[in-house]
């Protein structure tokens, strides 16, 4: 069965997912803000992401407002991308059917893969997994140490790349058109 232009065993799919990973990795490494990096990479590879979403999710990076105690921004970006395709619109608020749960079901799949990979959804916990400790990004010394430890060289870009890749795989399974199809 072919969905999104790929068959389940297709090497093109593997290359596509690697390209999504690398795009998110590069955006995070070069520009920071994991939430935006995930959405930007998925926007490069899939059709129909509203460009305003990239702007709207900017302050949700680093556990939300860069405080670290909330959900990792890479996962937030991934779930926001799911919502771009399957979320409920304002117009649909009054539709009280079970259909509104579909986007949450898909977001839960991304979340489960994320937890399996990183052990938690909390930014500081993911930092502890990747760096051996969490950081206070508002403290100038801690922020400096975070960056010196490779935050935007390979650690956060890897988390961001994997979140984008997990999401891309689900979008393909659900038949979302790629930007090149």
Polypeptide structure, described:
- By secondary structure, this protein is an all-alpha fold.
- It is 61% helix and 2% strand.
- The chain has a two-stranded antiparallel sheet with strand order 1-2.
- A hairpin with a 2-residue loop joins strand 1 and strand 2.
- It is globular, with a radius of gyration of 16 Å.
Keywords:
181 residues, two-stranded antiparallel sheet
Q: Can you list the strand order of the major beta sheet?
A: 1-2
Terminal Cα separation, in Å?
Answer: 16 Å
Please, how many helices?
8
Q: Can you write the helix and strand succession as a string?
A: EEHHHHHHHH
Q: Major sheet: size, sense and barrel closure?
A: 2 strands, antiparallel
Q: Which structural category fits the helices and strands?
A: mainly alpha
Rg calculated over all Cα atoms? 16 Å
Average per-residue pLDDT, rounded, comes to: 92
Estimate the strand proportion: under 5%
Tell how many strands the DSSP assignment holds. Answer: 2
Uncertain runs: none
Percentage of residues in helical conformation: 55-70%
Overall 3D geometry? globular
